[in-house]
From TrEMBL:
InterPro entries, alphabetized: aa-tRNA-synth_II, aa-tRNA-synth_II/BPL/LPL, Fdx_antiC-bd, Fdx_antiC-bd_sf, Phe-tRNA-synth_IIc_mito, Phenylalanyl-tRNA_Synthase
Record has Membrane as a keyword: no
Domain Aminoacyl-transfer RNA synthetases class-II family profile per the UniProt entry, residue ranges: 71-325
Highest taxon listed in the record's lineage: Eukaryota
SMART domains registered for this protein in UniProt: FDX-ACB (SM00896)
Subcellular location: Mitochondrion matrix
Catalytic activity as recorded in UniProt: tRNA(Phe) + L-phenylalanine + ATP = L-phenylalanyl-tRNA(Phe) + AMP + diphosphate + H(+)
Keywords annotated in UniProt: Aminoacyl-tRNA synthetase, ATP-binding, Ligase, Mitochondrion, Nucleotide-binding, Protein biosynthesis, Transit peptide
Protein name: phenylalanine--tRNA ligase
EC number: 6.1.1.20
Family per record: Belongs to the class-II aminoacyl-tRNA synthetase family.
Species this protein is from: Hohenbuehelia grisea
Any one Pfam family match given in the protein's UniProt record, by short name: FDX-ACB
All residue ranges annotated as the FDX-ACB domain in the record: 327-420
Amino acid sequence: RQSTDALLPSRSNYAEVLGSRYPTDSATNITPAIISKLPLRLHTKPDHPLNTLRTKIESHYADFAHLSSFSPLVTPFKNFDELAFPADHPGRSVTDSYYVNRDLMLRTHTSAHEVEVFGQGETKWLLTADVYRRDEIDGSHYPVFHQMEGARIFDASPTGMKEVEDDNERLSYHLAQSNIIIEDIPHISPTNPSQATHDPRHSELVAKNLKLSLNSLMLTLFGGATRDEPLRVRWIEAYFPFTSPSFEVEVFFRGKWLEILGSGVVRQSTLDTAKVPNKIGWAFGLGLERIAMILFSIPDIRLFWSEDQRFLSQFTHGQINTFKPYSRYPSCFKDVSFWAPQPEGLHENDFCDLVRDVASDLVEDVKKIDSFVHPKTNRTSLCYRINYRSMDRSLSNEEVNEIQAVVVARLKDQFGVEIR
Ligand code: FA5
Ligand code: MG
């Protein structure tokens, strides 16, 4: 092999993750860049905006249990099967999720802990955690982000339903006093049905409670920021394997509708698996970065990971203030063109992860700028433009060339591409 050997990742038969060693196998795709994020837990970092946002949501749900110390390492069974994901769901593939080995992965959502938490007997709870998904690279996508799961279950009995009705009345009254416009949809419909094992009247009341509860949360989070105009919230029919009916919530902010969360009435099999009998309830999962970017006017999702004092010193725990951008260092782009390996091709997420692994946070975004199939040989040519920028210093052209050379070497070595 050539001189680039030292730059290539070692093909070790174990991976060291959070202080433990795990055997690797053909599913292993976790990278050192990702492993280095696991201990950081930004949602608990002092003065960090994600921590302030978590605390704000926890104060809104003051009588809920507040959980935030679950390990990111879960079995695929826990992340998918327990939640009734079908065997062929795309999220399970190694191109979409990070695997330590085929039996251990990084959670892709906080819902992975639902069965565990319900099983511990919690009936009202919030759980905050870092989640991991293989994705493209740009200012609003990062392979690690943070979610907060919230859930509440009631007795599936007349007493339990009376509790829901009383809560619905209290929340409706509060919302009627507030400056909020809600675009609602039916709680239950033929395309968004209640579950076969549920009394539809119970399902309807619980879905209504979910919506009122989240409308009230949106008012707490965004009400202040849109003081003059009313806050606009819209409900959209959704699909998740582990809830029915299911909904997404969008909030209108600075001229755009933004997806904030997914939610629904908890599938009974989840509660059955958790050995919780005779209950019915709801759950939601929201993205903290999406909300924090709006509330703190943070323009780029990678800033949350910055160690730069010009970023960190702007925030104080518990305070929501507008981020003041400081001047950015110049960017520098490099293109790479190659023939994709045949016949398997090269998945964009594999390309992005390779770049992220080599360049870490020095990569700002990656764009496919050209792709064509050679009419005679049938080979696919791809051209990607990698934009490099440091958050805290000026990069020299030589330095960027060196990084790019490693990207190219690893492309050849790991994926067998032919550089053009
Ligand atoms: C889920 O992850 C479901 N577990 C949510 C859920 C929980 C549904 C409980 C029903 C009951 P989804 O993949 O849509 O769903 O992600 C939920 C939220 O996470 C999104 O609304 C968004 O706010 C945030 N999110 C998703 N992908 C990203 C990303 N790449 N970057 C930042 N935030 C993201
Ligand atoms: Mg979604």
